[in-house]
## 1
Amino acid sequence: VGEPFRLTVKKTDNTANVVSVVASGTDTLDGGTAPLRLRVQQGGARLDSDIDPSPDNWVSQSFGLAVGDATPVGAEMWFAGTTPPPGWLVENGALLSRAIYPDLWAHANASGMLVTEANWQNGPTNRASFSNGDGSTTFRLPDLTTDGLFIRAQPATAPNFGRRQEDAFQAFQMVNSLDSSLKLTNNGLEGLGASPTSAPGAGRVHVTNGAAVPLNSLIPGEYNGNGTPRTASETRPKNAGRLPIIKAFSVPVDSKSIDVTALAAQVATARRRLLTVTDTLVMVLPSGYARYHIDFDKVLASVSGAHLFLQVSSDGGATWATGAAYKSTRIATGTNSPSGVSAANSDATTAITLGADMGSAGPQYAWKGGIGLSALVTAGASSGLIVQFSAAGLSNGGYLTTNHGSGWYAAAAVNAVRIIASSGTLTGTAVLYGEP
């Protein structure tokens, strides 16, 4: 076929799997060796090689990827719901695949919070960190859900950055204003001497042989009108529960934070959808669409003077309609016509002519254009195809020509089309889209 080549890669499922595209051998991708990763359903890239001899540099043009989602992978937030949004995971200590979440694994390595799996499992201290999993294919998320952890600020230079701390109660003492030797501390009552006696005030607490009396046997009570103290099995401030989540990968989000992946599913019936990219110029029209559009490019004839035809099929391309069932009209403008304009009309022909007298002296003679296809409905049933087209290129002799026209095929329902030459063969690329 010759260069340049065009290749389209698209991720079709909505799982967390990642499609990685890498250049082969000594070829490069966008000037380098880094892979192109596709994570979003219907997200993909068109890859075009250069026309120089090998090695090739493939230039990518992405579609269906994240727009406006600038939240970095590894960012944390509290989520008001039980299920995280697309692209986010609950920080519950789950094991993840490094291959499926390569960006989050890269973040874990650079976070300063990556420990071995053995250290992660050895008590709670390291469980607010990432672990290296099995050491080769997995890694583990931090666990913030077990025991309901709060987050505190730390400088990046902290020696135990990101590590968990258990709860604690700061040491204290309350000194009697009349006798400073009488002290109530977190260890009990102190300073009452060696003989049995009692502390001043109501609710006397007895001390024997100078030993402090532990306070865990005391019952909290109301004091000075401040209400009954609230007690529990833990020390905590007033709080409200939220779900701790971490950004794992990017998904399409618009400027109003709407999930475009979900939105695309809702409006799929109102938008053009990429169906096929082909170098054979043969396209099957899948059901479920009322209109189709074809973009063709770099179409080159093997012989000079060939015409560019569109033919249809009613059996998926097994056979092609060649009888006199087509009707077409075409207006052409060209630099080789004295008036600059010519017209061609046919009420019965074997194909719809998109352009005439193609040149074949090299890639500079390649043609490009667009074709719109709609179902022809008669008596409430689909029984054919209406075609609108435009095509341009250099004709035989090197003259620039542009064609605009329409046509139809009414003999039967159509489910495949092809672009062919009236003689010889064609090379080129065609992209098929479907619309509801």
## 2
Amino acid sequence: MCICDEETGGSPTPESMPVPGCNDIWACNYDPLATSNDGSCDYLSCLGCTDEAACNYDPAAIYNDGTCDYASCSVNGCTNPSACNFDPEATINDGSCEYSSCLGCTDENAANYDPTATIDNSSCDYPGCIIPTACNYDSTATSNDGSCEYSSCAGCMVADACNFDPEATISDLCFM
């Protein structure tokens, strides 16, 4: 018996004509249109590791075959980003993290700048004159370098004197 199908333009389509293929839904090559199993079912090509966290994850695998491996891609090292020897490739912390070798002064303007330091330890030294009454006092200096001088800003600070110096900060001889 033939049935006429409107989608095929009225051409007869045999109702009982089998469609060969793999009709086992558990097979890797299952064909939902197959009506007759032709022996082509494949049960191996879609097996593999389906765990994305595994080293041998297979995105094409449909069924997990129990071969997932979690050790072969492991990298031992320091996994703490705050450590001096942090290893971004490490997947297993091996206890080797250390926190002192990268400490130092990270300011390029400091006298003791350490180009190998990656963590500033507040040890930066800025030498200069640290005595506030000196003419060349440097408020940003952290250590005295012996450069303090007291003569360039000395002058008469009496406004009525003929040698009055409005920029003087240290009182010196005045002439009245």
